[in-house]
Amino acid sequence: MDGSLPSSCLPSPVSEKLPVTLLIREPHFQQLFMLLEELSKLDFNFSKMESQERRGLQTTARILSRKVWELLMLLPTNQSMLEGFKQIVSEDCDEQKASWNALLDSVGPHKLMYSLQIVETLSRPVRNRKRSFMRSGGGDSIMSTDSEMDVTENPEEIWSQKFITKGGLKHLLNVFKSGSLQANEDEEWSQWNQECLAYLLRLISQFSVDSSDAEAGHDDVFETYESPRRKMKRKGGNEKIVIPRLNKSTLAMLNIDTGLSILMQILYDAAVPRESGPIHTGTWGRAEVVHYSLSFLVSWTYSCDNVRQALCSSPKFVPWLKRLTLEAPEPFVRREACMGLYRLCLGRTTDGKTGYPLLIPMITNLLSFLDNALSIKPQKTYTDVSNKKLELFFFIGMITIWDYYTNGTGNRSIC
């Protein structure tokens, strides 16, 4: 072609040569994840540079990694990975044959997060499926796979049951217990790990909820994280707090001492970033972790009394509570923490079980923090904190819990 013809007159390119087709195939598809991993490693390899230069390079690496992720979200779902997850509904695939380590590889957060999105799409009805907080791109490639399902009657429910019975939920819990997505002592907690961990906890909660509670229509089981301001506008102030419980099979897979220790450590790390600055504060990653970690902890506590007793008697309970309610620098992180603790104390299950036994230890410790709360000065952050109500969550939560206790509604025995 000499360029004399307009592009509209040129023949259509061969579909196999289109960029979108080439990128979704190997080795290019895997190279995108390798690029994401390399950019993540670059994020923490500038310790010998001056702080200003290091922050500039960190910002550039994070922007580039987000753009690569956006590109992935614009591409059609990788058919090899999609078919791998669909194959588990076949009768000849048992728990031993299901290659969960390959389907849900926990080595890198990017590949795992991509796989979790496929799991969510195959397991959740369209009416309950919301735009994921991880989907930075504008494409709906994963969402478009519903028509490709071979099963026509309640395909999401059938697939979800197969996913659980063939070890999918067990593998997700093993990833959670492994600590591969948690903060390491020698480096800053990657925001990719934070977002992937929050996504993992949301799906664990989805698959773990007791069927009777799910049938009762607890939409918060499928709740996607929203910013505090949007949530305040969407929800009324007098909503009844109904807590979904975990099913017996999930409870059998959880060790109270180990699981509770992991959840408390995750929340402790998520409350306060190890480094201050615009790169590390003002992002939603840690707020998402707090939101979904506390949601899972609340459901677990209402499902097993021993969890509540272990939480109250833990030697880390007081510093853990203080860090969540007072020491977190961002208002939206403290808000998520206080809302979770509110549900922990003042929620109710469908059969009438309440969290009132937690009122006494909670209000006792919150009152002991009062001097510290009064001495805290407003901090200038990199987020908009013009709404002063966002700074009052500690006091509002303490007063609300105190009201429930003193008026007799929650006057129950201490755990």
From TrEMBL:
MF term (GO), any: hydrolase activity
Keywords: Hydrolase
Domain of life: Eukaryota
Protein name: Ubiquitin 34 carboxyl-terminal hydrolase
Presence of keyword Hydrolase: yes
